[in-house]
Fold:
Amino acid sequence: MGEGPSHRWHGSKEPKKITWKGWGGRVEESIDRRLDLEIDETCGIQHTMSDGSVATYELRELKDRLCKLHGIKSNKDVLENKTKLFRRVVHLMVAGVDVSELFSAMVLAAAPDEPALKKLLYLYLCTYAKTHPDLALMTVNTLTVDCANEDPTIRRSALRSLCSIATQDLADYLVQPLQAGMRDRNALVRSVAVIGTWELHRIQPELVEQTGLLEQVQTILQEETDPQVLTNAMAVVRKLDESNGMHNQAFVYALHN
Structure:
């Protein structure tokens, strides 16, 4: 007879602190790795099989609960319930469990006006965008929509997350959000957009030069009043100055004059 689920209590162990370092910022979440047996107010008792895989019924349970929250008007209780579910999904993901099948349910469950929940969502989305090419474009679409959100905190987080998954194949999708970001009325969003321009330049310099993004950096240096945005703009200039190529050197000279 095969071994059944491995049950082990972990008592009062402190959960391990794991820091996710994404581009231009850090999202820190306290991740509890106790997966052998966990009692959760939202999901009930969660079992982990002896080989480390999570029972299929748990993922089905999570998906059902997330789907039921889609479209429900947000209030304190609903937000608390969503947060518990999102944290549980992230817990499993960090522990190496494939929870990619919850992708659509996670996206639909996050309301447009929940910044804290969005951060957990972006951590989930960006993790799978980097390892699942079939989910990368859906992640880009979700983040691009949120780059135009009314809440500047969400716009900033979405743009930073979008830049963190930038690749040759996805480069074209970054141009419009970066252009809008450098014109944003919020300084924090502009600050992220300036650094994002360098990230895109590092991947595909011709695209940045052809779309006028470098000229927008020049305009920021000339007109910006926020010190953090100016600091980031100068950092971009220094990066360009360190790179090789006469076209970069000429542009840096123009910025300084």
Notes: Confidence is low (pLDDT under 50) at residues 1-47, 49-54. Residues 76-94 form the longest helix (19 residues).
